[in-house]
UniProtKB/TrEMBL annotation, chain A:
A GO MF label: phosphate transmembrane transporter activity
Membrane topology type: Multi-pass membrane protein
GO cellular component terms given for this protein: plasma membrane
Membrane as UniProt keyword: yes
Family (UniProt): Belongs to the binding-protein-dependent transport system permease family. CysTW subfamily.
Ranges of biased composition (kind: Basic and acidic residues): 20-30
Protein name (Swiss-Prot/TrEMBL): Phosphate transport system permease protein
Residue numbers spanned by region Disordered: 1-30
SUPFAM superfamilies according to UniProt: MetI-like
TrEMBL record, chain B:
Major place of residence: membrane
Pfam families for this protein: BPD_transp_1 (PF00528)
GO biological process, one term: phosphate ion transmembrane transport
Protein name as catalogued: Phosphate transport system permease protein PstA
Compartments reported by the entry: Cell membrane
PROSITE patterns: ABC_TM1
GO CC annotations on file: plasma membrane
Domain of life of the organism encoding this protein: Bacteria
NCBIfam families from the UniProt entry: 3a0107s02c
Family the UniProt entry places it in: Belongs to the binding-protein-dependent transport system permease family. CysTW subfamily.
Role according to the record: Part of the binding-protein-dependent transport system for phosphate; probably responsible for the translocation of the substrate across the membrane.
Protein's organism: Streptomyces lucensis JCM 4490
Length: 335, 351
C-alpha cells in the first residue's frame, strides 16, 4: 500500500526519511476527498469516545446533586425515600440484591452453558449440532421483556414445587427457608437470568472449544484416553480463559438486566437472608420500578444508583476484555 | 466398535469388555421403572420428584454397571456423557417452553384488528384494542436510532480498519469494547440526565438517542470484522491504478463487504428493537397514536408488553403475549434475513 500511494503523488517527492513517509500515508494523501473522508471517519471514532466520556460526566454530575442532598448514607442506608424532604436513600439493598441474583445466575448458567458447548462440539451427532447451535444463536436475540413476561407468567407458578421441596429438605440451612409466599424471590430471578445468559455463554464457549487444536485431542486419544479424559485434559485447559471471559460477559448482562427482574421480583427495601423469600431489589429493577413515581429529585437519586451500576459493569466487562485480549490469538471470543 | 456386543466379563484379546450399544437405554428404562415404583410406594405426588429420582438412579446405575464391566475410567466417561446430555436437555426445556408459550398464547388475540388499532379508547382491563400505536412508535424510534447509529458505527469501523493506528485507534477500540457492555438502562439514564438539565418532557427521539448509543458498538464490531476480511490485494490493486484512498474505500472495500455489514446492522437493529428500559425512561408510553417522534410521549412494542403485563388482568396478559409474538417474529425475521444475506454475500477471501 505504501508504494502505490507514493506513486499517486504527481511530482515524485524528494527522498525523505521513511518515517515521515509512512506517517503521511497513514493519513491518506492530501486530496480534499481524502481529507474529508478521513475527517468523517476519525470524527465518528472521536464521537464514540466523547459519548463515553459524556455518559460518565453527566451521570456523575446528576448523581452528585442527589448525593449531596441525601440525608442517609448513600452506601449503607436501607431506605429509598426520595420524595421526603430531606430525601433519605442508599444502595445497600440494591447492591446486595444485584450481587445475589447474579451469583445465583452464574452458579446455574456457567456449568450448564459449558456442558452445552461441550455437547455441541464433542458429544452431539454432527448432523444435530449445527442446527442446535443456530437455534441457540437465535435465542440470544429474544428480547429480555419476553423473557420477563414468560418468567412472571409461566416460570413463577412452576417454581412453587421446587420452593416447597427446597424448604422441606434444605430449609434448615436458612438459605432455603420459605414462608409460603408467591415464589417471586431472588432464586426465581437468578434462574430466569441464568436462562437469559445461557445462549451468550454457550456461544462464546463453543467458539473457544472449537478452536482446540485437533492434535491435542488426537494425542490424548492415541494414548487411550476416553472422551471425558480428552475433554478434561485437552479441551477444558485450553478453553479455560475463554470460558472465564464468556462468563464475565454473561455476568455483565445479568448485572444490568432490567425488565426480567422487574417483572418477576416482588421488591421490598430490605435484605432477605433466604433466597426463597420475596424482597430485595437490584439496581436496574429499582430504577425501572421507582421511575414512574419519582420527582426530579428522585430521578437524580436513581441516576446515582445507575452510576454505581455503570461502574460495576465497566469493571466486569473490562476484566473480561482483558482476559480475552491476553489470549486473543486463539480464543476467538472477541465477539 | 459397533459390533462388539460383549456383555460378559471375559476380556477379548485386543480390547476390554464393553457394554452393548443399547445399554444406556436399558438402564434408563430400568431407572424410570424403579423411580415410578418408588414414587407410587412412597406416595410422592410431584412428577418432578419422580424424574429427579429416575435421573439419579440412571447416573448411579450407569456408573455401577459400567464400572463393573468396563472399568472405572470408562464408567466416569459414561457418567460425564450422560451429564452433558442432561445439561443440554435441561436447558432445552425452558427455551422450548418460552417459544411455545409465546406462540400458543400469542395467537389468541393476534389478528388484523389487533395490528391496526391502538389502545386509545380501550381500558387496560377490557379486551380489545391493539398495538398499532406501539408498532408505529417502535418503527420510528428504531428507524431514527439506526439512521444515527449505523453510519457512525460503520464510519468508526472504517477508521479503525483503514486508517487507525496509534493511540486514538487503541482508545476507540477499547472503549467500543467497553461500550458493548453498557446496560441499556444506563444509556437511558444518560439521556435522561440531559433531559433533566434542559427540562424536557419524554418524546420518541430521546429514546432513539439511547438506542443509537446501544447500537453503535455492535455495528462497529461487526463491520470491523467484515472489513478485515476484504483481501488486501483488492485495495492495493485499486490504489495502484491511482484511485484515491477514499474512493477505494467507497467503491472497492465497502461493496465487497456490504453483505456482512448489512447483516451486522440488521442484527444490531434486532437487538435494540427489543430494548425496554431506555424506552421506559425516555419515551414513557402512550395509549394513543402519536406519529411525531419529536414531540410527546410515544408507545413502543417492548414497553407495551411491559405495561400490559403490569396492568395485571387476563385481557391485558393476552395482549402482552400477542405483542410478544409480534416482537419475536419481527426480531427473528430480521435475524434470519440477516443471516441469509451473510451467507449469500459472504466476501470472497482471496481464494
Amino acid at each position: 500500500m505504501d508504494i502505490s500511494t507514493k506513486q499517486t503523488d504527481a511530482p515524485p517527492p524528494a527522498p525523505q526519511p521513511a518515517l515521515t513517509e509512512r506517517k503521511r500515508d497513514a493519513r491518506g494523501a492530501s486530496r480534499p476527498g481524502d481529507r474529508i473522508f478521513l475527517g468523517l471517519s476519525r470524527g465518528s471514532g472521536i464521537l464514540l469516545l466523547v459519548i463515553m466520556a459524556a455518559i460518565a460526566v453527566f451521570l456523575t454530575y446528576r448523581a452528585s446533586l442527589a448525593i449531596s442532598k441525601d440525608h442517609g448514607n448513600f452506601l449503607t442506608t436501607f431506605e429509598w425515600n426520595t420524595n421526603l424532604t430531606p430525601p433519605v436513600f442508599g444502595i445497600a439493598v440494591l447492591a446486595f440484591g444485584t450481587v445475589v441474583s447474579s451469583i445465583v445466575a452464574m452458579a446455574i448458567a456457567v456449568p450448564v452453558a459449558v456442558a452445552i458447548a461441550l455437547f455441541l462440539t464433542h458429544y452431539a451427532p454432527r448432523r444435530l449440532s449445527g442446527p442446535i447451535a443456530y437455534v441457540i444463536d437465535l435465542l440470544a436475540a429474544v428480547p429480555s421483556i419476553v423473557y420477563g413476561l414468560w418468567g412472571a407468567l409461566v416460570l413463577v407458578p412452576h417454581m412453587q414445587g421446587l420452593y416447597g421441596w427446597l424448604d422441606d429438605y434444605l430449609g434448615w440451612t436458612g438459605l432455603f427457608s420459605w414462608d409460603g409466599g408467591a415464589p417471586r424471590a431472588m432464586l426465581t430471578v437468578g434462574i430466569l437470568l441464568a436462562i437469559m445468559i445461557l445462549p451468550i455463554i454457550t456461544n462464546v464457549s463453543r467458539e473457544v472449544f472449537r478452536q482446540v487444536p485437533r492434535m491435542h485431542e488426537e494425542a490424548a486419544l492415541a494414548l487411550g484416553a476416553t472422551r471425558w479424559e480428552v475433554v478434561r485434559m485437552s479441551v477444558l485447559p485450553f478453553g479455560r480463559s475463554g470460558v472465564i471471559s464468556a462468563s464475565m460477559l454473561g455476568l455483565g448482562r445479568a448485572l444490568g438486566e432490567t425488565m426480567a427482574v422487574a417483572t418477576v421480583l416482588s421488591p421490598s427495601y430490605d435484605i432477605q437472608a433466604s433466597l426463597l423469600d420475596p424482597g430485595g431489589g437490584t439496581f436496574a429493577q429499582n430504577i425501572a420500578s421507582k421511575f414512574g413515581e419519582a420527582t426530579d429529585q428522585g430521578r437524580d437519586a436513581l441516576i446515582a444508583s445507575g452510576l454505581v451500576l455503570f461502574v460495576i459493569t465497566l469493571l466486569v466487562n473490562g476484566a473480561a476484555r482483558a482476559i480475552i485480549a491476553r489470549r486473543k490469538e486463539y480464543s476467538g471470543a472477541n465477539a | 466398535m459397533s459390533t462388539a456386543a460383549v456383555t460378559d466379563k471375559r476380556p477379548s484379546t485386543l480390547r476390554g469388555a464393553s457394554l452393548p450399544k443399547w445399554s444406556p437405554w436399558a438402564i434408563a428404562a430400568g431407572s424410570v421403572a424403579v423411580a415410578a415404583g418408588l414414587g407410587l410406594v412412597a406416595g410422592l405426588h410431584s412428577k418432578v420428584q419422580w424424574g429427579l429420582i429416575a435421573a439419579l438412579l440412571f447416573v448411579a446405575g450407569t456408573y455401577g454397571i459400567a464400572a463393573r464391566v468396563e472399568g472405572r475410567r470408562q464408567a466416569k466417561d459414561r457418567v460425564a456423557t450422560s451429564l452433558v446430555w442432561v445439561a443440554f436437555l435441561l436447558a432445552v426445556v425452558p427455551l422450548v417452553s418460552l417459544v411455545w408459550t409465546t406462540v400458543a398464547r400469542g395467537v389468541k388475540v393476534l389478528d388484523v384488528y389487533f395490528l391496526t388499532h391502538s389502545m386509545g379508547i380501550v381500558a387496560d382491563s377490557e379486551p380489545g384494542g391493539g398495538i398499532y400505536h406501539a408498532i408505529i412508535g417502535s418503527l420510528e424510534q428504531v428507524g431514527l436510532a439506526t439512521a444515527i447509529g449505523a453510519p457512525i458505527g460503520v464510519l468508526t469501523a472504517i477508521y479503525l480498519v483503514e486508517y487507525g493506528r496509534g493511540r486514538l485507534a487503541q482508545a476507540v477500540t477499547f472503549f467500543v469494547d467497553v461500550m458493548t457492555g453498557i446496560p441499556s438502562i444506563v444509556a437511558g439514564l444518560f439521556i435522561l440526565s440531559l433531559m433533566l438539565i434542559f427540562h424536557m418532557q419524554p418524546f420518541g427521539f430521546a429514546g432513539s438517542l439511547a438506542l443509537a448509543i446501544l447500537m453503535m458498538p455492535v455495528v462497529v464490531r461487526s463491520t470491523e470484522e467484515m472489513l478485515k476480511l476484504v483481501p488486501n490485494e483488492l485495495r492495493e490493486a485499486s490504489l495502484a491504478l491511482g484511485v484515491p484512498k477514499w474512493r477505494t474505500i467507497l467503491k472497492v472495500v465497502l461493496p465487497t463487504s456490504i453483505g456482512g455489514i448489512t447483516t451486522g446492522i440488521m442484527l444490531a437493529v434486532a437487538r435494540i428493537t427489543g430494548e425496554t428500559a431506555p424506552v421506559l425512561l425516555l419515551v414513557f408510553g402512550n395509549p394513543f397514536i402519536n406519529n411525531n417522534p419529536f414531540e410527546g410521549a410515544q408507545a413502543s412494542l417492548p414497553l407495551y408488553i411491559f405495561q400490559q403485563y403490569s396492568a395485571g388482568n387476563d385481557a391485558a396478559f393476552d395482549r402482552a403475549w400477542a405483542a410478544s409474538l409480534t416482537l419475536i417474529a419481527f426480531v427473528m425475521i430480521l435475524n434470519l434475513v440477516a443471516r441469509g444475506i451473510a451467507r449469500w454475500k459472504a466476501p470472497k477471501t482471496g481464494r
